[in-house]
Amino acid sequence: MAEGNTSAPVRLEGKYGAMLVCWVLGNGCLFSWNSMLTIQDYYIALFPNYHPSRVLTLIYQPFALGTLAILAYNEAKINTRKRNLFGYTLFFIATFIVLVLDLATSGKGGLGSFIGICVISGAFGVADAHVQGGMIGDLSFMLPEFLQSFLAGLAASGALTSSLRLITKAAFDNSQDGLRKGAILFFAVSTLFELLCVLLYAFVFPKLPIVKYYRAKAASEGSKTVASDLAAAGVYKQGPETKDEHDPQQVERLNNKELLLQNIDYAIDLFLIYALTLSIFPGFLSEDTGSHNLGSWYALVLIAMYNVWDLIGRYIPLIKCLKLESRKGLMVVILLRSLFVPAFYFTAKYGDQGWMIMLTSLLGVSNGHLTVCVLTCAPKGYKGPEQNALGNLLVLFLLGGIFAGVTLDWLWLIGKGW
User: Which keywords describe this protein according to UniProt (predicted)?
Assistant: First the structure.
């Protein structure tokens, strides 16, 4: 798609409504998983011998990565509407089951409960692969602001869950069984939020005029993935300006291999961003930063600071002069982030909590900023079906980086007797 065609006609309405819905749907993509990460203090108390902050992440990622690899390979044939609705519905059901499991076992630990939590973690991974790849692919052929809003929503889910966790911890800190009460409230809120996302995607998002315009445009360029969403919006055929769908010039598109070769630097960028970030967050921050004045609040504060600054970082590219668009520049900055590893090691060993909080904030802001820069720059210049496919491929590398990161995170335990 030519860059000159990226702006919708002025008459179309719903741009800011669509941005808001994208932000909420981005939240829903990671809200349940971030809820599980953010109550690690509860799970560490419940399962002290199983390293839940590391094990749950390690289980989540293969399911997310394996499912997305299958979905990305078959992306051109998959009904995007069914894919995204399945993902959000699975998030809703799995989050509800976490709540039921805790209530059914009366908050008792043990191997059986831990295995149940691990199975739910795997379900979150499957749901994430459906939603994150599906939504980023879908939004890649719309306005860049929609994709930025969705990515900001992903980060906002972390900031919101951290804020909610701090509130519930403060509210129940002095009560009997306070950790558990806070966790139950936490997952009740998460369950309702995931239900909201199902309803928004099913009934609100496809009917916004600007969304209908971009989906119809993608269909005119040969995309078959948008048909159900267009039908849900009452669009069953294209307007008179639409090209003949059997025109070979119109449906001809680069295949996945060609797209990947043209954008291999962007794919490597995302892999490296998340491999580095997840090798530190949340496992290292939860278990390896020592004891400080903040006591049991310390890990929660670190995770909250990361999440807040990750969110801020995702809004920085809206300031055009601060958006990094040079492909070489992106790679250089991403490689320089490897300096975070020795910085965190020495800060944990010799620094005080103020330095660790500052370092965690820098990790978050760089993660958010670079993610938005890569994912909004890469789709430029392609047709709708190619942008959808590229979005899926880039998310596959992003999840690959997360999997590599959570695996590397175990290296911090070397020499610690486990």
Answer: Membrane, Transmembrane, Transmembrane helix, Transport
Of 94 and 179, the structure prediction assigns the larger pLDDT to 94
Q: What is the DSSP string of 361-417?
A: HHHHHHHHHHHHHHHHHTTTTS-HHHHHHHHHHHHHHHHHHHHHHHHHGGGGGTTS-
Q: Do 358 and 344 form a contact (C-beta atoms < 8 A)? A: no
Q: Within 13 A of 387's CA, how many CA atoms are on the CB side?
A: 33
Query: Which residue shows structure tokens 């849900």?
Result: 232
- Nearest of 65, 161, 128, 99 to residue 397 by alpha carbon: 65
- 114, 353, 356 from 302: Cα distances, Å: 25, 9, 8
* pTM for this model (two decimals): 0.86
pLDDT given for residue 38 in this prediction: 73
Q: Render pLDDT for 199-226 as a digit per residue (tens, 0 to 9).
A: 999 999 999 999 999 999 999 988 888 8
Place of tokens 């999440």: 307
Q: Which residues, other chains included, contact 243 with Cβ-Cβ below 8 Å and sequence gap of 6+? A: 220, 250
Residue 247 confidence (pLDDT): 47
